[in-house]
Design a protein that fits this description.
By secondary structure, this protein is mainly α. It contains four helices and no strands.
Length: 123
């Protein structure tokens, strides 16, 4: 399930970059289509992330469980920041605060997911 979760995040970031590029080029129709596909990918991210969190809940002790819950909250925060960026850019408004939130949440998610938690990528 870890690899499906990582794959869905990679697809989400690719779609996120593509939607931003479409919005910058004022290609509204294709940008909206990709944005809807990205929103479907958010659901897959939430499903796989919830499954990973359930695995931590059913098998882990408290310190790791607290970090897993923190990562889940930061992941939802990251999805919300991505959505805020795309909506604000679509309306031609400043998205500086959303970008700051995006980078903070991304760092928290990556550090907890790949460095701290034991279900990260095992090489």
């Amino acid at each position: 399930m870890t690899h499906m979760h990582i794959t869905s995040w990679v697809i989400a970031f690719i779609l996120f970059i593509l939607v931003i590029a479409m919005q910058d080029r004022e290609n509204v129709k294709n940008g909206k289509i990709l944005h809807m596909i990205l929103r479907l990918d958010y659901l897959f991210i939430l499903y796989t992330g919830g499954d990973l969190l359930w695995n931590y809940i059913s098998t882990s002790e408290m310190p790791i469980l607290a970090e897993a819950i923190t990562k889940g909250i930061a992941g939802i925060w990251l999805i919300a920041a991505m959505e805020m960026i795309l909506v604000k850019k679509g309306k031609r408004k400043s998205a500086k605060s959303a970008w700051v939130q995006f980078w903070i949440a991304l760092i928290i998610v990556l550090v907890l997911g790949f460095i701290r938690l034991p279900m990260g990528v095992q090489l």
